[in-house]
Design a protein that fits this description.
8-stranded mixed beta sheet, 29% helix, single chain, 440 residues
Length: 440
């Protein structure tokens, strides 16, 4: 391993590439995904609105915490010398190459070999250790491509099962066998803990308070959905009231003043903008397709807030700014989002506004969890009945030969079902991604 050590700034997790090299890598990933577009290929959630409570009752969803980190795709590949290389791809579609020999993802049963043509979805966070030290960690919540084979048309539980067996288990064994290398790794990798969607109270009471990194809500992802580029209506982002926000492009409009006698004596004879005065803070959305960003609203600033922004001594105009709506329905400044190139799309703004106006509270989610649980178990029972009926049909078709179609030749399957039922009854909320998969 290299002596470079762990990444210290998650916003800049490596060396950013550019020019022809960047175009080549974007084209390579697009070809791997069978896409014509070279844009960021990751899925994007929609904001949680009241109608989504019904969605959680109708479909199987997993829930996990929404980390306050940086979203990155992790691309595992090789260079022209057949050496292991990794890239992190941010939402601006910038590619950050990881320092050589600071990460290794072995294949099963061969610690020296490594994965290529693999695209993983996750986020980079900074965990605070009990010692007070900060540890970078990449939390995985999906896998799009595995060793050149697409997983995007598989369901979420299957995608996670493939990732766990082919990548995560060999990686965990590497850490166990070579613990002395951990301090030199660029970051550690973990699978993000997924729970059944009805484990909501457990999330609020047990999971969120004990996280070693920041958190700003919950993410619900449909268990049976395929992976989708861009906005995905089956990924639901719930935020507490104080965290529900929109990213706008900030366009400052300063008051124009007439030159006074001192200005005229200094040769200034025409009206000019007063850059010290409190400006009108126009908020623009993103409409895509090369069109001009449309105006949406204005951001309210107190005089002391404006003084604080000026004191940054940074360019303010034309930056992406994250805003929240206060109790008087005014947009207020939260922070700048320099990790983003564009403001939220008009459709995203509409989704967030719906979420704000039709707000679902923490208590609303908790109140709904028993119905969500009952509906989940009802669907599971119906599915089990269908499978039992299908097995019986096969048994009859085979002439009732003992051991054919009744599960006798696959006792592990029955045991697995029993473990899953026991797990659910104990209320631990953990998903069962299914048995190991041997063939893609």
């Amino acid at each position: 391993m290299s002596t470079t050590g762990p990444v210290s700034i998650i916003e800049a997790p490596g060396e950013r590439i550019g020019g022809e090299y960047l175009h080549h890598m974007r084209s390579q990933v697009a070809q791997l995904l069978d896409r014509k577009q070279l844009s960021f290929p990751g899925a994007q959630p929609v904001s949680f609105a009241r109608r989504h409570l019904e969605e959680l009752k109708k479909q199987d969803y997993y829930v996990c915490e929404k980390s306050d980190g940086m979203r990155f795709l992790l691309y595992l590949t090789s260079n022209e010398y057949n050496e292991e290389v990794q890239f992190l791809i941010d939402r601006k579609n910038d590619y950050w190459i990881i320092p050589p020999n600071t990460l290794h993802f072995p294949v099963p049963k061969d610690v020296k070999s490594f994965h290529i043509n693999t695209l993983i979805d996750g986020e980079l966070v900074m965990d605070k250790l009990p010692s007070g030290q900060m540890q970078p960690k990449y939390l995985v919540f999906d896998c799009m491509i595995l060793d050149g084979n697409t997983l995007m048309n598989r369901t979420l539980d299957k995608r996670l099962a493939y990732f766990k067996e082919r990548i995560y288990e060999p990686y965990k064994k590497l850490l166990a066998d070579f613990p002395e290398e951990i301090p030199f790794m660029h970051f550690l990798m973990e699978m993000k803990a997924m729970q059944f969607s009805y484990a909501i109270e457990m999330m609020f009471n047990n999971v969120l308070p004990n996280l070693p990194h920041g958190n700003d809500g919950l993410i619900f992802t449909c268990r049976t959905s395929e992976y989708k580029h861009g906005t995905d209506q089956n990924i639901l982002k719930w935020k507490p009231e104080a965290e529900n926000s929109i990213d706008f492009r900030l366009s400052l409009e300063f008051p124009v003043v007439q030159p006074d006698q001192q200005d005229i004596s200094e040769g200034i004879t025409k009206p000019y903008p007063d850059y010290e005065a409190l400006p009108v803070c126009n908020l623009l959305m993103y409409s895509g397709d090369g069109r001009e960003d449309p105006w949406y609203s204005t951001m309210f600033l107190e005089s002391d807030e404006w003084d604080s922004l000026k004191a940054l001594n940074e360019p303010l105009n034309d930056r992406i700014v994250e805003c929240f709506m206060d109790t008087q329905k005014r947009w207020r400044y939260m922070r700048f989002r320099d990790d983003k190139t564009n403001a939220n799309h008009t459709s995203t703004v509409e989704s967030v506004i719906e979420s704000i106006m039709d707000r679902v509270t923490k208590q609303d989610l908790i109140n709904a969890q028993m119905v969500i649980r009952d509906e989940w178990k009802r669907r599971a029972a119906e599915q089990q009945a269908r499978e039992k009926k299908e097995i019986e049909k096969k048994r009859v078709a085979s002439g009732g030969i003992p051991g054919l179609g009744n599960g006798a030749l696959n006792p592990s399957a029955a045991a697995g079902q029993g473990q899953k039922r026991k797990s659910e009854e104990q209320g631990n909320g953990r998903p069962s991604p299914g048995p190991p998969v041997k063939e893609l």
